[in-house]
Amino acid sequence: MFESSCEMPSPWGLAKLRGLANLRVLTAVIMSIGCSLGLQAQTKLAVSTLSELRDAVQKSNQTIVMAPGRYMLTDLPVGHRDVPCSGSHNTIDLSDVYVTVPVGTTRRSYITISGDHNLFRGGVFEDVYPNGLKEVTDFSAYNQNRSTLAKGLSGSAVLSVTGDNNTVADTKLTVRGSFPYGYGSIYGIGADNVYGLDKRCGILVKGKQNIIDGCEIQQQAFGHGIYMQRPADETVVRNCLVEGVMRPSNDLYLETDPRDLPVRSDYRIPETRRGGRNGSRNRRRGRPEREPETTPANLGTPIPRDTMIPLSEDGIRVYTDGGSVTVENCTVKKMRGGIRLYLASRATVINSTAVDCGATNFNMPKNGKVIGSAGNFAYAPLSDFRLSKSNQDIELTIMPSPHLVGPHHVADILGNNHNIVFHRTEGPLDVNLRPIVVVGSGSTIRNETEYPVILQATASANSVVSYGPVTDLGSDNKVVRIDPPGDNSTQP
Fold first, then answer.
1. Fewest CB atoms within 10 Å of the CB: 74, 120, 215, 410?
2. How far is CA 157 from CA 110, 113, 282, 465, in A?
3. pLDDT score of 432
4. Does pLDDT of 165 surpass 60?
């Protein structure tokens, strides 16, 4: 039984309150009574098996504490290998609980929070391969073993939040098992995939006013880390780490077995991805995969050399109609997109870092805000301003990238009417002087870094204050050179 600071008034006190004319005081007392009664209805429940936990989380108004220890999801019977948190107003405490999930033993999300006002706290959940494999290095052998290794969740996330006003705190997920794995998005990411797609993601949020706090996701499968889909709204992601895996694109040319996907695609990125949806359906039904056509019309471009391929999707991502999101004090590493929020209705990023991502480290929606955050441009731009979303308020510290690979810019500033400040990290000047490229109009840009700024022919009516050199190929732009930060002198 919980103890509460909401105290039940005495009979004398109630009688006195009946005589009060102040309606607000009476309302406050009634709310106090309700608070006390609600808390008194809660129970504390200790569980020591996954079966007991599974039963408990389907009821409401409890504090559920699981005994510390190691468990396996296969302790549950086939068809019931999940933790369906359909109850509401629960605190689910999994501190010092470690659960292994053998890949292939379930085909759906195995943690679902469909109730409301729950706190799901703690727990380490690790997808494990039956043969003990920890890190995939032989992608040829991995992808040829569809029965026990390269098995996903049909695109689902390990943990799914569909209810409202829930908090997931201090939970760690190690996500393994997907097909294909090792090639990023080369062979398709949706129904137009080539060889039959079987993804596995980290955390999916589809409810409203949910919080993901202090969680860690080691994303070692093709899929997103944390992502929001309709009808999610007012999501908060804070104090989280999402980390993926990168692979040199040159390694794909080392795969020579006729069954290897690069060989089957003639080391090209297919443009026509026929058979993708049917391939997935046939595989689920135990039918042979349909071979994709490999005519010159659909072979596409060669797999690029001398780049890095992200083996997962995005770190923190919002989809269309995925609502608003606040990301605070988070770190994303080595994912396809880092903090990728350009489809959110509103988005604010505070004190967060995205580094070593393969497509972009940041992008934001119209009116998006980035405050006190940092990133690099090792394998992709710091920000790509996806879909030319405008009116962004951006403050980013550019981190040097000595391990730079690929032909990209530091940043590609698309869209109009931005307010952008680029700080630099302390230390010696960078020698990898890739440019900051501006193509839009009406933006105010302060570049305190050594990286050069290029105003393209389409750039107009921008105001640029820059330490790095500026090349103005546009029209009606105002350019002022400054000395390094801390020096008040300027150069016209």
1. 74
2. 8, 12, 22, 44
3. 83
4. yes
Q: What angle do CA 106, 261, 129 make, to 5 degrees?
A: 30
Distance CA 7, CA 310 (A): 56
**Which residues are CB-contacts of 80 (< 8 A; sequence separation ≥ 6)?**
54
Q: Looking at 37-41, 43-47, 72-76, 357-361, which range is the least confident one? A: 37-41
- Cα separation, 267 vs 264, whole angstroms: 8
Does residue 489 register a pLDDT over 80? no
Strands (E), 251-368: 268-269, 301-302, 308-310, 316-318, 325-328, 331-333, 337-340, 347-350, 353-355, 360-363
Please report the pLDDT score of residue 298 as a whole number: 61
Span 83-112, pLDDT tens digits? 999 999 999 999 999 999 999 999 999 999
CA distances from 14 to 11, 25, 38, 70, 435 (A): 5, 12, 19, 51, 72
How distant, in Å, are the alpha carbons of 302, 317, 450, 477 from that of 491?
46, 41, 15, 16
Q: What is the C-alpha end-to-end distance of the chain, expressed in Å?
A: 71
C-beta separation of 186 from 307 below 8 A: no
The enclosing H or E element of 276 equals helix 276-284
Q: How far apart are CA 52 and CA 384, in angstroms?
A: 48
222/227 Cα distance (integer angstroms): 13
- CA distances (Å), origin 249, targets 39, 111, 302, 371, 410: 57, 34, 11, 33, 21
Cβ burial, residue 479 (10 Å; 0-12/13-18/19+): middle
pLDDT tens per residue, range 305-314: 999 999 999 9
How far, in Å, CA of 350 to CA of 329, rounded?
A: 6
